Amino acid sequence: MSDSNSLFLKALNKEITKTPPIWFMRQAGRYMPEYRAIRKKFKNFLDMCKNPDVCCELALQPINAFNLDSAILFSDILTIPDAFNLGVTFVENEGPVFTNPVSKPVDVDNLIAFNPDELNYVYEAVTNIKNSLPENIPLIGFCGSPWTLTAYSIEGRSSKDFKKTIRFVENNQESTHLLLTKFTDACYLYLRKQIKAGADVIQIFDSWANLLDAENLRNFSLNYTKSLISALKQDPLTANTPIILFSREPKCDEQTLINTSADCISLYWDMVDFDINIARDKVAIQGNLDPKVLLESKDLIKEEAYKILDKYEGYPGYIFNLGHGITPNINPDNVKFLTDVVREY
Ligand code: 1CP
Predict the structure, then answer these.
(1) Closest residue by CA, ligand 1 atom 13
(2) How much distance in Å is there from the Cα of 278 to the middle of ligand 1?
(3) One of 3, 30, 218, 345 is an active-site residue; which one?
(4) pLDDT tens digits along 36-91
(5) 345: how many CB neighbours lie within 10 A of its CB?
(6) Is the pLDDT reported for residue 248 higher than 90?
(7) Where are the domains of the chain?
(8) Any idea which fold 3-344 has?
(9) Which of 7, 36, 106, 244 is positioned for an S-S bond with 21, CB 3.0–4.6 A?
């Protein structure tokens, strides 16, 4: 795909665009009636992710409904722990539950070797989606950051504070580093295959970066994300694929995020003090409307969207997005309205 045809690729290339490209984190999901209609045919969410034709249909739903500037692969970040045989299931109203989590250091030693071909269903979905999209709409592939995958794999479920994970990390630093290394290697092989299958852009979700203090953030999260990005940038097959890093409320400064060598930083909704003058000409910026705004009136949605648009106006490489994913309680009409507001700004 040539950059000239895609607003999104232009912005990732740090160009000023006439109107900011727009897509939404979790743009496919339970808030859409057409998603729920398909979802109810599957008991287990992961079974749905393992069906490439269904993933293709789901990834296209928001493109057809809102005419967005990018599609994102329909899958989940927990496909990698699933391929490590940690027994990932999704429990109704509870989220992910691992039947076989990492509980002690020996569990890390005994992990099976990651075989990227176990996730062929993901690469097939990528190819199907890519073949179904208009030529000028790029496709984002993704993975969880090594740290975020580690947190779920130790905790065995979602949690507000990931206490079990924090305790494990404090008591077993060496094993934690080994687990992070295994996930970093797996992410590299996984993303490489997504790109080979047709992904135009990669987003790395460090959704639990907020659990770590400044020193641990560097040790357990950013260093591994940086190695992952570096491996992709050194590989001729993946070197030119732009990488977006979403890091939730990291306890670090702007330059530290820029130093990961990501091409774009995706800002969490409350990262309002992030200084774009430090980031200018170094990275593109994506974000960061508070998703809760989409629960409000149209007037308020417009007002809040304009605050964001005013703030980033003229920034070389700005992509409009939410500061976290769309939640199931959001009305799709408001998503359509917001898209129009951004386009007409
Ligand atoms: O039952 C259902 O319908 C499941 C809901 C759902 C969906 C639609 C889950 C379960 N995952 C997904 C898809 C998904 N997940 C996508 C593709 C859809 C799109 O973006 O259009 C992506 C990119 C993800 C990424 C993902 N999964 C993240 C990172 C983004 C973020 O929100 O920070 C995380 C943390 C997950 C884990 C996950 N998957 C699903 C749940 C309920 C959770 C746990 C969230 C938590 O711990 O609170």
Answers:
(1) 76
(2) 31
(3) 30
(4) 999 999 999 999 999 999 999 999 999 999 999 999 999 999 999 999 999 999 98
(5) 15
(6) yes
(7) 3-344
(8) TIM Barrel (3.20.20)
(9) 7
